[in-house]
Each structure stands twice: as structure tokens, then as C-alpha cells.
Design brief:
heterodimer, A: ABC transporter involved in vitamin B12 uptake, BtuC, B: 328 residues, 75% helix
Chain lengths: 343, 328
Amino acid sequence: MHNIVRHHATEVVLTAVIIVMGAFLTLSTDRFLTLGNVFDLLNISSVNIIFAVGLLVVLIAGGIDISFAVAASVVQYVTVLALGGIGGGGWLSGFLIAASVGVLLGLINAVLIHRFRIISIVATIATFNIYFGLLMFFTKGVSIYALPDWLTTRVVLYEREMADGSWAEITLPVAVMILCVMTTWLLLARTTTGRQLFAFGDNPEGARRFGIPIGAMQFIAFGWLGLMAGIAGLMQAHYAQEVVPNALYGRELDVLAAVVLGGARLGGGKGSVLGCVLGVLLVSVTQNGLNLMGVSPFAFKMIVGAIILTAITLSSVRLEKLAPILSRRTQDTGSTAGEGEIR
Amino acid sequence: MTGFARRFNAIFGADMAGPLTALAAVLVIMGLASPHFLTAATFGSVAFQLPELGVLTLAMLVPILTGGLNLAITFTANIAGLTLAWTLQTHGGADAGPGAFLVGSCLALIVGALSGLVMGLVIAFTRAHPILVSLSMMIFLRGLGEFLTRGGDISGFPAFIAPIGHGSVLGIPVPLLILVACVLASHVLLSRTRLGFSTYMIGSNIESARYSGINTRKVLVLVYMLSGIMAAVAGIIMLARFNSVRVGHGESYLLITVLACFLGGINPFGGFGRVLPVFVALVVLQLLSSGLNLLGANQHLTTAVWGILLIIVMVMRWASSTFTGKTK
């Protein structure tokens, strides 16, 4: 038990906060702890979680990416146009096109970062502007509503009629999200590449001297985020049943905040898939709870922002200062406060 | 050739080469591409459009020099603008006097400083990453602004405010004068004062700055307050230029200010970089925008070209350091 708390402090704290909030919302509203609402939460959070696990890999490898959300918008547009070109297509061709365009856009970032030694935040701010500018220029900001039928038809994987006659449903994005989360977890926790990504993020020069291929690490990390962005883009188009060029604009910063809330460190070498999912869920549960409690939607972002600010402040204060009981065991890891540099 | 390079570096500084080359390239290419480019009208419109982006970039610049980032600048500007707008509205809206404007402007600057103060305190005392702190501050301020205005805009200001956005003194646009004043103030602050010196030291190596007796926490707090105040100035200029305040005005400038700083040779890790190359980089960006506009492109294509320009400059910097054998 002590070891779990020590090694997974962020995850434990996040779980505790979510449970406390859930308990409070269960008591104060009669809608929160219903199957319908829980499924809604999952359906709504899916796209962000897919983005988040992709971004997590880049953060662990010591980089940062600002461009992935607008890259996903580009993917949506290109995919829908390409599907029109091949006469409709289906889920398989949709996923293939979206994934390959996403990976391609991610690899552009990796080339700039690795080949030309541009720091990731500079490179991705540049590609952010290029992707978004060109997308808006070529589409003239026009949305696409005429999507293929298979893409807009809701795919319900599990449904159950509730006592009040409403339907609780698990839809396709949730299954895709779970698949993305599982594969990212496998990549990070169960493969050599995953260990190398952590090592590279923690100390690139040390990793290089160890014989870890630096270039491959950058390409894997940004390629993985590109893949996730492509899939998330397709899921968002499926969920929203339309393609709006600026729908995902600004999403990158929200996802970044949630991922870091989940314990990933800017500067690399630290972070977990579970924490990242919990980070997104915390934000979703907060919004959902505010909604159920009848708080004005205009106040949502303000409250979410305040919560993230508080959480980041608290999580950066050394744990042993807040909980003296833990200090005996945490002293050996106590030097990790403070953040590394983004490369 | 090396003699020329040395003399150039002695006069302008080595970090001026990139922006001045880009400036020359833009002037030549656009001048050849469009006969209307090298006219007074172009430079007039640049002079009026530059200040909002320029002052916001100054707000971004100082935190970057400490190795941080302030992502909250655009919404700090909005909230400061709202503060001024409300002060004017409570004093009679369009009939408000100059006194109300002065009080409102002071309040706006205080609000900007407050937002910086909170961020600075959190960054200095918990050592949380500035990107995260300013990011959550940005989300908070955006939410606060949307909550207070319900997504609408506030307009109807007294007539004497308009010249701040549109007027000219001796043929020089007033907003440009404000920008130049801010640029000079930042330049003097960074190159001639104790605070400026400490800012660079913190950006180079915060630990050794602390060991050499610099109160790093105090400096960090002051830097972010300064950034907030600069953002508030930008908010006031935006209010005067648009004659309205809306949360989200200037939102798209956020990453452009970072782009301008990097284009101006600021080291992304902090510690190195000067104000004047950034100013030249800003002029380049705005000239490029006006030139593309004359050629029939819209703002979105300009955004993409700005991004491409940043990559070109970074690749050239990489190439020059690779081929001259210098490693930086």
C-alpha cells in the first residue's frame, strides 16, 4: 500500500479527488450516478482521451506538441474528401486514410525537430500556424455536412433501457478510445521502445551514449501522436456528424492541461497512461457535475481553469510538505521537484 | 566578407542578422510582386496594425527571457480591456470624462499586474512549469471573461478615446507611438537595469543566479507582473482600435507573439535575446501580412506563411551553425 502511494502519488490523489467529487455529486444531484450519465461521460471524453494518450507519449519523450489538434482537423477534411474521391469507402478505408494522414503530419514535426534541430515547441507552433492557416485558406472556413452515411450513423455497442425510458449507450468512440489507451499502455509499459522513450525523455545525452537511436525515438513519439490525432479526428467527425475546420482549434491547450494534471512532466521522462486518463476524466466530471447542478455554462471554463491552477500549484508543492507522514519514505525521491527543459 | 560581418555585428549585434535579412527579403520580394507595396499607404496601415501585436509580443518576451512563457497574455488583455470598459460605463458610457478614462486605465493596468502577480507567485514558489501555470490562468481568465460578458461585447465609449486607436500626432499614428514607447521602455529595462540583468541571469541558469545572491523569486514575480501590465496596455489599445471589448479579441495573436519572439532570435530556453531584433521581426511579419493582402491573400494564408517563415529562419540558423562549425 505504501509503495503504491509512493510510486503512483498523482494517480492516487486524482482517483481520490474524482471519488470525493463523485460522492458529492451523487448526493447533491439525482442524475450523476446513473448508467446513462456515466456512459455519457465516457462518450464525451473519448476524443480527448485519445488525444491525451498520444500527447503523453510526446511529453514522456521530452517534447511538446501544439499542432496536433489542428492536425486532426486537417485529417478530418482530407479523409472526408478522399473518401468522396473513392466513392464512399467504409470504416476500414476511413481509419486507414485518417491514420496515415495523421502519422504523416506528425512525422513532419519529427523531421523538423530531429533533422533541423528545431526545438519542439518552436517547430510545432510553426506547423500549428501552417496547418491551420492552409486549412482555413483552402476550405475558406466552409464546413462539410454531407458525410458518408456510415460515418454519421451512430454505432451503438451496448445499450440498455433505463427505468425512465431513456437509453444508456456505449458508442464506437468509447471502444476506439479503450483500444488506443490499451495499445499506448502496451507501448509504454511493456515494450523496449517504451523504456527507451522514458530514458530518452529523462536524459537524451545519456540515452544516446547508451546506444538508443535518438532519431527513431522522435519519429516514434511524434508519429504515435499523429496516429492518435488522426483517429481522434475521425472519431470527432463521427461524433459531431460534421466537419468544421476550426472545431478543434484551441483543443490542444485543454488536452495539454489535462495530461499534465495527470502527472506527465514537461521536460520528459515521467508520466503514466492511467494518470493521463484520470486527468481528462477529472475535467470531464467537473464539467458534467457543474452542468447537472445547474451552474451557468459560461462559468464552466472559469471553474475548470481555477481547479487546474489549484491542482498544478498543489502538485508542484513537494508532497512531503503537505503530508509529513509520507516524508520518511519519500526523501530519496524528493529531489524531483521542479521541471526540466522542453526540447 | 568576415570584416563586413564583424562590423555588422559590432553595430547591430549578431542576433540582428536574421530579422534584417528577412526584412530586406520581404521588401524586395513584395516590392517586385506588387507595384502598390512600396507606398505610403502600406506603411501607414502597418503602422496602425503593428501595435496590438507588438505590445502583446513585448508581454510575451520578458517571461521567455527567464526561460518561461506567458500563455495568458491575450486574455489578460481582454480582462484589462473589460475593466476599463466597465469603468467608463459606470461613469456614463459615451459621456464619460477623461477622468474616468484615467481611473479605468489605471484599474486595467492593476488587473493586468494582478494576473501576473498570481502567476509569478505560483511559478516562483512552487516551481511549477510556467507553461502550465499560465495555461491554467489563461483557461481561468477566458472563462471569467465569458462568464462576465456572457460571450457578448461591450461598446459605446466616449469619442475622445478613438484617437488612441486611430489618431496621429505629427503624422505618426498614436498606437505606434505607444508601441515605440513600450519597446524603448522594455529595451532600457532589460539592458540597463538591475531587474533586466537578473532576468537574463535567471534565464541562463536559475540556480547559479540564486547562488550569486539574486532574489530569483522576487525577480520572477516582477517579470510576470510586468508581462501582465504590458498585456493590459495592449488591451487598452485594442479597446480604442475596435471601439469595443470582447473576450476572444486577439486570441489568434497568442502563438504569433511566440513566433515573433523566436523569429527575433530570442533563445527559447531563455537567457539570450534582445528587444530590438524582435521589433524588426514584428515589422517583417506585419509587412508580409500587408503585402500578401495586396496580392489578394487572406489572413489565413498569411498565418501559414508566417509559420513557414519561422521554419525557414530556424533551418537557416541550423544550417549556419552546422556549416560554420559552431555549436550552440
